Amino acid sequence: MKLVVQVKLLPSPEQAAALLATLRACNRAADHVSQVAFGSGVKDRNGLQKLVYADIKTTFGLSAQPAVRVVKKVVDAYSALAASLKAGRLGGPGSKRYRSVVGAPVGFRPEAAQPFDDRCLSWQTDARTVSIWTVDGRLRGIRYTGSPDQLKTLAEYRRGESDLARRGGKWFLIATCDLPDPEVYEPVDWIGVDRGIVNLATTSDGSNYQGRRLNRYRRWQARKRAELQARRTRSATRRLGARAKKEQRHATDVNHRISKEIVSVAQRTGRGIAVEQLDGIRERVRLRRDQRGTLSSWPFHQLGQHLAYKARRAGVPFLEVDPAYTSQRCPRCGHTERANRSTRDHFSCRRCVLAGPADVVAGVNVRNRARSAWVFVTTPVPAPA
After folding, report:
1. Distance (Å, whole) CA 183 – CA 124
2. Is the separation of the CB atoms in 32 and 59 below 8 Å?
3. pTM of the model as a whole
4. Predicted confidence (pLDDT) per residue in 191-205, tens digit
5. Across-strand partners of 276?
């Protein structure tokens, strides 16, 4: 399985200045390559490299391999844009956003991350240092740090490119590690997980991970942002920049802790994990204007991703099941009716009078569907006649 490991670089002021000059030179070159690709219509790697390779080496001071990485970075950006357009994530062909994206070349921020391969960047994991190419020459002995688990994973399983990134004045290296997949065991049962806004996750065992504290924190952050935006001063702008992504990091940490606990329970008890497949939920529902921000910042998808990769890393079976009517179906008699869920928090079956917390009932229904689905997943393919 692929796992991304991020470590923090600890460069000296002189090294940091060289790294910053390198990022800016690479992104200026990427902007130039993007304009050539947009104007000529050539967006494949080999064709584009023939057009711009010599130019970006002489004009922007890049050596051979960084120039190749810049071209690959631009090609990947146009491939990602084409995939987004095809999937409709940028609106229809007649929308304003679609036309604005298609009508201009892809741009790159002056300090956008830059990929480096093993010819441009080498790791000395024993000494915890890296050697990296810059426009001011090769820098050696740049120290890095991270958690013990990150450092161990990096030393044993790092493969391919590493991205140099700068955020908030700090430097990071983001490396891809290729870990061996552990064997998935045969589950004795399943833990159904129902995800929501008020309760971030509720399991079929009755464990409830409430989101009230996270929602309070988000509302507080929204008020602070509004206050700072209303001031319209330089200091307010600086403080807004310092707050950027702080809420996102907090929500990510909450999701990590919830998913880690659920996976550990499943691994300890020999069970699998089942969640609802909630793809396209933002397109399926229509909300009032005051509800849109809450749904857009709801990290349900990230929680599902954390559960999936942590379960895979631990060898725990993981399934996504059909979410239809999981909160309205009675797990005892199967009666499905909207009136079964009289309020958001309470479930009461109109036929057999089974009652309980609505989110727990939904988790039980998810668990029951996983029991049925696992039979089809593990059924051997019949031999051809």
Report:
1. 31
2. yes
3. 0.80
4. 999 988 778 889 999
5. 321
